Amino acid sequence: MPGRPRRPVPPRPTRARRPPPADPAGTPPHHGRWGVTPGRPSHPDGRAPVAPGRSSSHSEGVPLALLRRTAAPLGVLALAVAAFAYVGQVDPHEPGHYPACPVLALTGVHCPGCGGLRSAHAVAHGDLAAAVGANALAFAAFVVGAWWGLRLLSAAARGTPSPLPTVRSGHLWAVGAVVVLFTVVRNTPLGAVLVP
């Protein structure tokens, strides 16, 4: 049985789109990349407008943003400087100011850290030769720590990502080998110059 013929459907009338109304302050709509956004006017350079009576957020927020970025590295450096200042004032060469090394007291063997406080005391007084003689490994750690702290502070001040090192197992093995070698050599007659 043949079906009934379909009647044509007339097209629906289209409505003209009206732009969104301006915000209560009377700001015209912002014609952005993705359409019209009410109340979001833009400057020719793409920056957001500044409310009347207020300065630009760029010039106003720079010191606060800089302080927030550099707070952590500045705090660490301040603690390090305070520790060196304390050791510089309280002489570790005089007995009774600091506890004795338990490894040296029990075994008579100089551990890798023996002489570290005396090295820090010499660094605080600017005597780098005495610092190396007290503990060359500790002096190298002081230099690397200061260099790395200044790098972190510089990166934070510029707003660039922190230069975090890529630590691999080979690096840890190398550091461990240096520490063990330094400990062994300083406890032999050949390494008497490394004994504090």
TrEMBL record:
Keyword Lipid metabolism set for record: no
The keyword NAD belongs to this UniProt entry's keyword annotation: no
Superkingdom classification of source: Bacteria
One Pfam family hit: DUF2752
Region entry Disordered, spans: 1-59
Transmembrane segments: 128-150, 170-195
InterPro entries, per database record: DUF2752
Keywords assigned: Membrane, Transmembrane, Transmembrane helix
Full protein name: DUF2752 domain-containing protein
Source organism (scientific name): Streptomyces spiramenti
